[in-house]
Amino acid sequence: MSAPNKSYDPVEVEALKPEEIDRARDAALAAIAAAGDLEALREVKAAHAGDRSPLALANREIGALPPHAKAEAGRRVGQARGAVGQALKRRQEELEAERDERVLVEEAVDVTLPFDRVPAGARHPLTTLSERIEDVFVAMGYEVAEGPEAEAEWFNFDALNIAPDHPARTMQDTFFVQGPGESGGSGGSGEGESGVVLRTHTSPVQIRSLLERKPPVYVICPGRVYRTDELDATHTPVFHQVELLAVDEGLTMADLKGTLDHMVRSLFGEDLRTRLRPSYFPFTEPSAEMDMVCFACRGESVGNPDRPCRTCSSEGWIELGGCGMVNPRVLTACGVDPERYSGFAFGFGIERMLMFRHNVEDMRDMVEGDVRFTRPFGMEI
Ligand SMILES: [Zn+2]
């Protein structure tokens, strides 16, 4: 396609010949179209639109032309450079779009892939179960109350009608932090002559709640308690309780029973019942043990050797904890008039409930902190 006319015109510069400009333009356009990625396009741009490119060099020659030739050469070179510039811009946009699309695909995160490099933690099931129980009662208008774990003996025993000679006060059950009559000194916070113990139950929080509030009082007291037990499959020296206290005018055992039924249905299933068996606690009168129908077999394993139930040992009932009407002496000790007010209370161990609710067989699993134990509970909300 080169021009056959080789005649030399002194005013005509080789680089400005129309066919040279067309050739330079076409070469540039072909290279631009062939550039496969942004890196290649950058090289094409330097070669065909840079300072040393044929069109840029041709442009420089225009200045040396006689005036009458300048306009024509300028228009020609300008059009060629414009065409190259536009082609570069278009190709740049195309390649950028392709790159963005490729990055979206290549760097996409598949959230369904199994994750095993950073295992997620899980909340301890004792915490989640405890909070579920709290939620049931908060929804009924109860208030969550807390108290110190190093507790004055008076709150832990005396105020709950547990006399000084009660077996629960011996060293066998109780961790003493400071004996009775020892000086309050540095760390202790004894109540007068009362000693300090690691609380053996959450009941002292009930006493504190009664002293701090005017009836009606509706509180739920979850927390850690301590007994001098060895750690084994069914005992641990530190465990968790939830206790509940309601003091109001006209409360009866029927209110207690209805509250228990509601809790059991909320935690274990709609059609479950509870029953009360006579018992004795110093701080309630009358007192009862509370049982619930086994949520696993619904009582159908009783007298049915073909369908034994591990959860209730085929007894049909599961023992939950103790309860009763608050002993009037406890109300009096807290400055509440037992002639006007009555109350009910119940309490149970969270570990025990976790054991039968989730078939946990060894209490040590709950305290050893092995994430292989807690992780399966992590999904519970
Ligand atoms: Zn059962």
From TrEMBL:
This protein's record includes keyword Magnesium: yes
Domain Aminoacyl-transfer RNA synthetases class-II family profile: 127-376
NCBIfam families: pheS
GO molecular function ontology, one term from the record: magnesium ion binding
Pfam families per UniProt: Phe_tRNA-synt_N, tRNA-synt_2d
GO annotations of cellular component type: cytoplasm
Subunit structure: Tetramer of two alpha and two beta subunits.
PROSITE patterns, per the entry: AA_TRNA_LIGASE_II
Record's subcellular location: Cytoplasm
Reactions catalysed according to its record: tRNA(Phe) + L-phenylalanine + ATP = L-phenylalanyl-tRNA(Phe) + AMP + diphosphate + H(+)
Keywords assigned: Aminoacyl-tRNA synthetase, ATP-binding, Cytoplasm, Ligase, Magnesium, Metal-binding, Nucleotide-binding, Protein biosynthesis
Binding site for Mg(2+): E285
InterPro entries: aa-tRNA-synth_II, aa-tRNA-synth_II/BPL/LPL, Phe-tRNA-synth_IIc_asu, Phe-tRNA_ligase_II_N, Phe_tRNA_ligase_alpha1_bac, Phenylalanyl-tRNA_Synthase, tRNA-bd_arm
Manner of cofactor binding, per the entry note: Binds 2 magnesium ions per tetramer.
Cofactor names: Mg(2+)
Gene Ontology annotations of biological process type: phenylalanyl-tRNA aminoacylation
Membership in a protein family: Belongs to the class-II aminoacyl-tRNA synthetase family. Phe-tRNA synthetase alpha subunit type 1 subfamily.
This enzyme's EC code(s): 6.1.1.20
Gene behind the chain: pheS
UniProt-recorded name of the protein: Phenylalanine--tRNA ligase alpha subunit
